[in-house]
Write a structure and sequence with these properties.
Structural class: alpha+beta
Organism: Methylovulum psychrotolerans
GO molecular function, one term: methyltransferase activity
Protein name: HypC/HybG/HupF family hydrogenase formation chaperone
Largest sheet: 5 strands, antiparallel
Radius of gyration: 16 Å
CATH architecture of the largest domain: Roll
InterPro entries: Hydgase_assmbl_chp_CS (IPR019812), Hydrogenase_HupF/HypC (IPR001109)
Shape: elongated
CATH class of the largest domain: Mainly Beta
Number of domains: 2
Family: Belongs to the HupF/HypC family.
Strand order of the largest sheet: 3-2-1-4-5
Order of helices and strands: EEEEEHHH
Length: about 100
């Protein structure tokens, strides 16, 4: 399985960019999305940017990844911790379909 990571461009180097996610820096190929200015958020799969993201979308993806990290961890977690990471879905209108509520 390949999971896309939201990364922020922090430096440019030709057709690649130095990007940051969770404090780690990675050299990312920009050929599929074109040159991007410093500060841009991109969705990265296997060190290749596949999509340009808004800051809000990047945060939502990072929150979902953090929820997955918490769920897979060894420590007990509270439902509120997960709800906080999916604030855009909790109490939203229209409500989630019944099969997604359980």
């Amino acid at each position: 399985m390949c999971i896309g990571l939201p990364m922020q461009v922090i430096g440019l180097q030709g057709d690649t960019a130095l990007c940051r996610y969770r404090g780690g820096d990675t050299l990312v190929d920009l050929l599929l999305v074109g040159a991007q200015p410093v500060g841009t958020w991109v969705l990265v799969f296997l060190d290749t940017a596949r999509e340009v993201l808004s800051e809000e979308k990047a945060r939502q993806i990072a929150d979902a990844l953090e929820a997955m990290h918490l769920i897979m961890g060894q420590h007990p977690i509270e439902q509120s911790q997960i709800d906080d990471l999916f604030a855009d879905l909790v109490g939203r209108e229209p409500p989630l379909p019944e099969f997604l509520l359980s």
